[in-house]
Automatic annotation (TrEMBL):
This is DNA-3-methyladenine glycosylase I. NCBIfam families: tag (TIGR00624). InterPro entries: Adenine_glyco, DNA-3mA_glycosylase, DNA_glycosylase, Tag. Gene3D superfamilies: Hypothetical protein, domain 2 (1.10.340.30). It comes from Aquimarina addita.
Length: 187
């Protein structure tokens, strides 16, 4: 018998694999947190499946999401990225990846790690919701509003509340699996 999954992922193998293995799993590794932050910022205004399909291209184009390298990207490197058909070629988003990498490092310097900074907003524990249907899940919350405002104050770009809520879902700060989903209790 097939396991019940959240309705948003059903029907696409890549989506289902991401849902089954990554989405909503609490992450505490700064490198992975940065990867998801960058992917979510590029997703702004697009569908997540578009980003998932280009994820490996992003990984190749952005030095495996090495934020220390990305923070030093030159204008020439940014121009090179804008020619890369494998990623989202948006000038403001490419520029923001560099700015966000620089600010990510500043947060690490201030808090010891980005993990310490971001998880402090939920006191180190995931918020567990009880959605019966993924369509009942909000696009943003007071917590994502607060994080968004703080990140913007720190100079981050493309970090609106909806983007941040999607980031929180992806990295397991919030468990938004449907209560009937097999992953709900696992994460």
């Amino acid at each position: 018998m097939e396991k019940h999954k959240c309705g948003w992922c059903v029907g696409d193998t890549l989506y289902e694999k991401y849902h089954d293995n990554e989405w909503g799993v609490p992450l505490h590794d700064d490198q992975l947190l940065f990867e998801f932050l960058i992917l979510e910022t590029f997703q702004a205004g697009l569908s997540w499946i578009t980003i998932l399909r280009k994820r490996e291209n992003f990984r190749d184009a952005f030095h495996n999401f090495d934020y220390k390298m990305i923070a030093q990207y030159t204008d020439e490197k940014k121009d090179e990225l804008l020619q890369d058909k494998g990623i989202i070629r948006n000038k403001l988003k490419v520029k923001s990846a560099v700015t966000n990498a620089q600010n990510f490092i500043k947060i690490q310097d201030e808090f010891g790690s980005f993990d310490s900074y971001i998880w402090n907003f939920v006191q180190g524990k995931p918020i567990v919701n009880t959605w019966k249907n993924h369509k009942d899940c909000p696009a943003n919350t007071q917590v994502s509003d607060t994080i968004s405002k703080d990140l913007k104050k720190r100079g981050f770009k493309f970090v609106g509340s909806t983007v941040i809520y999607a980031f929180m879902q992806a990295i397991g700060m919030v468990n938004d699996h449907e209560i009937g989903c097999f992953r709900y209790k696992e994460v």
